[in-house]
Amino acid sequence: MNLPTLCLIDRNLLVWIKFLICLVIFAFLSASAEVDEVDPTIVSAIQYQNMGLAYLEESQPLKAVTQFENLIGLLPNEAIGYANLAVAYFRLRQVDAAEKVIQRGITAVPLNSQLHFIYSEIYHFQGKSGQAVTELKEALRLKPDDLEVRYLLIRENLRDRRNTEAISKAIIDLRFLRELTPTNIVVLLKLSQALLLSDEDVEQVGQIGKELRILLSDIDSEKLKYLDEGMRQVEVEDIKGANRNFRIFENINKNSPRYQQGIGELITPILGHPIEEFDQRFKSRLVATQTKPIVVSFSQPVHHAMISRGQELTGLQIDYDHDGDLDNLTVFPDRIQMHRNDGNDSFLDVSDRTFSPSPDYGGQSVTSGDFDNDGDLDIIIASVSRGCLLLDNLRQGKLEVTHILSELKRPVAVDSADYDHDGALDICVTTKIDTQLYLNRGDGVFIKDLTLMSLGGMDVHFVDYDNDGHLDVWVVDKRRMSLFRNDGTSKFSDVSSLIPTFSSLDLPVKKTTEVTSQDNASGKSDWVDGQVEDYDNDGDLDLLVGTWDDRFLIQNEGGNQNGWLQIELEAVAEGNNKNNAYGLGSRVEIKAGDLYQMTYVEKLITDYSSEVDPNLDSPFRQRSFVHFGLGPIEQADVLRIVWTNGVPQNVISPRTNQRILEKQVLKGSCPFLYVFDGEKFQFKTDLLWRSALGMITSIGTVASSDSSRDYVLLGHKMKPRDGTYSIQITEELWETTYFDQVQLIAVDHPVGTQIFIDERFTPLPFPEFEVHAVREIRFPKSAIDHQGKDVSIALGEFDYKYAVEHKPGKFQGVVDQHFIELDLGDIEVSQKILLFLTGWVFPTDTSINVAISQNPSINPRFPYLQVKTDQGEWQTVIDLIGIPAGKNKTLVIDLTDKFLSGDRRLRIVTNMQVYWDRAFFTLGDHDVSMQVTRRHPNRADLHYLGFPKMYRPTPHAPHLYDYSQIDKKRRWRDLGGFYTRYGEVGELLQKSESMSVIMNAGDEITVEFDVDQFPTLKDGWIRSFILFSDGWVKDGDINTLASQRVEPLPFHGATSYPPENGEHFPDGPDYLRYRLEYNTRRVSHRLPRF
Fold this sequence. Notes:
This protein is of the alpha+beta class.
């Protein structure tokens, strides 16, 4: 490895650096002092780290050595001191000293990727290329998204151009980098040459050449000729010549700004790579080492209950398809079965269509959670015969079965928890021969941490027995119980002596009539398992040991000396049904001081009440159970629940034993529109409601892939601002929006007249755009609802008071059948009659639709219109009138020739959750002069806004938003991929041609139309506005197709979404330029930091 020349910095700079460090520490002390006294160790650690880095920056590594040695003295279990001390010695060319320090660091923190990276640099300096590559591979295994490490491995693999295996590995890594940095010309050039060397997928080289041609269009034509010649040679299959020209093209561009920018994205050209920031959990680890353990003991076991067990080994209640109800996974020794809850008290065996490939074996133990951190529930099964199985949730009711941890021999039991406080579910596996801890890398790949003991067990559980906030491990076997205490730094000590020595097979059994059937097992003669719960409700966790026939209780004595928090989750049952009643499968996180913890709600416990409520069928009550130890902290600061439908909910200062009710949150709908009224921006409505990419309908089909072509009425209250009509289009919900075109339509008309447009949603085709100018509106003679109640006043004006304010049904969006009946009075029906209905609809979402599609007894019906026949019967004359396309929209319904008798009554009937706010009609043609002007945006700027405050003006009104109150924090697990970069995007909104502005949650487009491009308003006239927008919306609902990522991009003419049958986004030069120049803002599919 070449040693770069270290830059020398002006010595006077150190004075300024020291001054800035003092300011940082002072600010840290000031901020922390408001909460609690600052640990002087933390303050000193920050000072040593900052001063050491400052000395490294100004090329004084000898002075940095002292700082980092002091840092190791303070934090001997943290990687940061060892890494940076090794870098300091390395820059002093004291390579042997650097190697010894890095070895000490890897011994203390073996799973820190940066330590292995630095070790690889040392090996390179020593000329030990093989060892260097080994350390690079280990660094990449521990941190696969490290671009620099991956690129250095690529360079190693490309050194020998005849080594086909190494070239193939380089291609895999280069493709990975291309996904992350698609406009990096270094990656593109290296990948094209590697593909040519391997003669693999040469067609892709042509595509890469086109991308390079666009990215480097501004360079000298004399240089471009080598790229052009290389692409020509690819076409004629002159692979050798093409490779030569691509290499020449790269070499002559290495000094160009674009190439150097690409290198800068991949590597940092310095000697030794220090760790610049502390691990975010280091404070909690430090506090743990300084906190004296409490004294805890466990009681002698006592008989607790008799058990009725079936033949199956274990079962798991889990909402694997995320439709809001609990399904049943049953694991037998020889098979696995999934029974889907269809929501009508029936369960259907869907094993054949769920597991892929279908397993012909079973297991003994099961645990669940989101192991790969992609937002859905996965499952791990321990199988003595087959090892550990990961059932990765592919969504839409599919689980992919893969073998993991192949090195494990005969695993018996598994449990999952986040024992290292990094937000990822780790696992503990006990086998026939040992018990192992595995850390989750964060993506569902598990890395062996340590062997707890060289003895196996029959069951294993994470349990915070001393409530210090750090998860300990309890291993259960027939003749021993083992307990290992986590000291807070993920180091475990054997404290098995706390549990009385006994054999569960020799324990006395009391005769009792109490029987529980919550557990299952096989191997009747020698089976034993464990369970953890706070049986006596005293704040610490007790242990329950079960044999085939009986369960024994071992009570925790003293664990409640430390603080603790227990909560119960309860989902909204009526009018929502997005989550199972107990919140099983929800992710729960807390922060208490510097301590972060996370768990998944995986089990229910059963409470027994001796005072039987006569209204209950049983004195037993099942509930979810979540327990956190808090250590010396008495009160948690904040708790976050991520429900199984993906919606996060924060609870400030949660109380112990608190039942937390799900807050009904709108997670997906459409982008919002705000208009300037002369004083401030006001919420107006939502847009693009007609297009819902990838949505599953209530009958199980996929929604149309057509764009929205949306017209919404803004009215006459929008006012100019600084010579422009300015609107704000925001994306605030859990979705990605693709805006393809925006136009502002001005409709000038005489004062005293009004204009309306049809803003309804119907299945294709959408209603044609037409402006209805009205001189006179008429109200029905009478209006009643389905219960005969007079609703004339409610329908008289737009005021958020509705004709029918629904009682919640089982599902959001579906209620009992209802109607409004309007009597138009004595009117002549030979003329044109138009009915105008204004209201809003509370829609279902994909997951609710999936649940409805499984339950044929629930059938949402679009509103339809009935009139009276001569025989006095109601007859449907319009089978589908549509619904309001979102919030506060108007339907225009043509009643001409629809009446079948002299009775002028009509009914609008539906069981959808539609709220009708206003109803009127017009007669005849209204001869109103209008001047209609369409204009494209003059400017449009995409930027981050945040989230305006949500409110509801009345209990049944739609969710509205206050633009004056903005929360800047990110809120959702964003769809991953490349969004449109911030800045001017007006070019993309001029035409509907599939080159969309791609918006993420929290984004806003300010769209401006110059006033002077509209005609002067005539005297006695008024100007109303209509906004046309075209595009698509894709929400993040777990069951929406392709809901984890931005791509595939939608396009006009697609017959399905995601595209099928060879359809794909256009790949012409203009579209390629659009993607490379505009869509460069990468967002990860991760929860926002808590």
